[in-house]
Amino acid sequence: MDYQATYALWQQQPNLDPEVKRSLAQMANDEEQKEMAFAAPMSFGTAGMRGVLGAGIGRMNVYTVAQATEGLAQFMMTLSEEKRAQGVVISYDSRYQSQEFAYTSASVLGAHGIKSYVFDSLRPTPELSFAVRYLKTYAGIMITASHNPKQYNGYKIYGEDGAQMAPEESDMITGYIRKVPDLFAIEQVAVQDLRAQKLLTIIGEDIDEAYYDQIRTVTINSDLVKTVGKNMKLIYTPLHGTGRIPAQLALRNAGFEDFRLVPEQSVADPEFPTVPFPNPEFTQAFDMAIELGKEDHAEILIATDPDADRLGTAVWTGDHYQLLTGNQIASLLLHYILEARKQAGTLPKNGAVVKSIVSTELATAIAQDYDVDMINVETGFKFIGDQIKHYEATGEHEFLFGFEESYGYLIKPFVRDKDAIQSTVLLAEVAAYYKSKNQTLWDGIQALYQQYGYFEEKTISVDFEGIDGASEMADLMTKFRTNQPTAFAGHAIKRVEDYQLQTATDDDGAVSPIDMPVSNVLKYILDDGTWIAIRPSGTEPKVKFYVGTSAENLDAASKKLDQFEADLAAFRQN
């Protein structure tokens, strides 16, 4: 069936959801939008699905959400009765239709006799991960589009360990989703009937308190917070998302008192009216915090994204606020954790830090200095969660810290996804530590560069919008595989790691296996230690290029980055 026929089929449905009906009318004379919405179903990967809100099989709406949940329910029906009885916990963020999607999911699960636990109002993603573990449910559903613009929403499934669903289970769920014959005939049970049948439990403050109790354990040096952190000036913004209440409580519980919220951005508003993108890695997200910071002479500004799993920061350098990269934040957190554990005599002999393969090697240098293993995993925090689960089962390592360059960090594994609430508390403590030395976090990262080397990284995103975007992304990856480059910016490639083929090929032709899950990622190791990685985004229509290098100083490292970026662009366009 072509997109026009599918569009017509949706138009013919009686009792259509009002939002879907409105969206259908809006695209009536827009063939491009129709094609994008109706030509192909939304992809459902290991990170779930994420897309523009609106009518269509390729959009986020009550019908595609019901379809995804039907797939989960069908999968759970293959499990033992005991497993099914564990149920599913559901949370949602501040985006349009998030609460509606949450209750749609509960209604579909209830039609299969599967119990759901739904939060009474919006909550951050890390608390959903915690709730799965705390309530011992079989799965979790988080309705969120993370840091995407306001037009988006998304749907993520978590496994019973609290991490995003493992690829094996996720692939099986995808198979069931694709087999749903009719999106408009998925059985649902009304919420009132679910309550009467005890198939829906509303949860809230009880889970909050248990989560906050665990957040209290993140603080390493409470005396430092009470003496220095208590009076340290801090500005926090939740960027119109879920972080306002938990971040405030977490900071107060830790002992921080002199902090202010950006008032205009503390309202949970799905329009995100004060920022073009609610993404804490972008300078614009800090514009209002910087104004308030200058007024208060604040030492540190912290922003979390709408579902409070990512954190960004801007720090005072002496004459302006400087945004730190995700890699810099992670390096500061890691160094503080390891040094504090060393000083306390609690640094384990089998300690391990886990990071993604596209994250900074500065963290590796820090870990090696403390005789701690650095474990590299593929991009996706679920792979960090997998390592934690493995360590718990085998005792092979003690987890100390996990991070991705994309502004996601995990300090304590009572959560199995990136947690910006934990990170807010610990980063504030690290700022207090440097303040106790009459330094700032900016001084701190410079000191790490002086001690371990000047590492610089950059992520370059190339957008592929439109109906042909997916095929164009695939063609680009094919180009790099079939027309293999031999050098970038005058530096020879010494090793090519292809995570789709699961092979590593050295420049002498020697081939060795890569023991990681299959993933569409290429990574090049150059003769000067620079690395370049290429991967299509799993949640957005873009291909990401990552470059990591080092040099004798930051200026030299930055110049090298520029050269590699230019050479990558030239190769891509030829």
From TrEMBL:
InterPro entries: A-D-PHexomutase_a/b/a-I, A-D-PHexomutase_a/b/a-I/II/III, A-D-PHexomutase_a/b/a-II, A-D-PHexomutase_a/b/a-III, A-D-PHexomutase_C, A-D-PHexomutase_C_sf, A-D-PHexomutase_CS. It catalyses: alpha-D-glucose 1-phosphate = alpha-D-glucose 6-phosphate. The keyword Isomerase applies. Pfam families: PGM_PMM_I (PF02878), PGM_PMM_II (PF02879), PGM_PMM_III (PF02880), PGM_PMM_IV (PF00408). Keywords: Carbohydrate metabolism, Glucose metabolism, Isomerase, Magnesium, Metal-binding, Phosphoprotein. GO terms for molecular function: magnesium ion binding; phosphoglucomutase activity; phosphopentomutase activity. Gene3D superfamilies: Alpha-D-Glucose-1,6-Bisphosphate, subunit A, domain 3, Alpha-D-phosphohexomutase, C-terminal domain. It is an enzyme of class 5 (isomerase). SUPFAM superfamilies: Phosphoglucomutase, C-terminal domain (SSF55957), Phosphoglucomutase, first 3 domains (SSF53738). Its cofactor is Mg(2+). GO terms for biological process: glucose metabolic process; purine ribonucleoside salvage. PROSITE patterns: PGM_PMM (PS00710). Its EC number is 5.4.2.2. The keyword Electron transport does not apply. Residues 507-549 form the Alpha-D-phosphohexomutase C-terminal domain. Residues 42-179, 210-314, 326-452 form the Alpha-D-phosphohexomutase alpha/beta/alpha domain. Belongs to the phosphohexose mutase family. This is phosphoglucomutase (alpha-D-glucose-1,6-bisphosphate-dependent). The lineage of its organism: Bacteria, Bacillati, Bacillota, Bacilli, Lactobacillales.
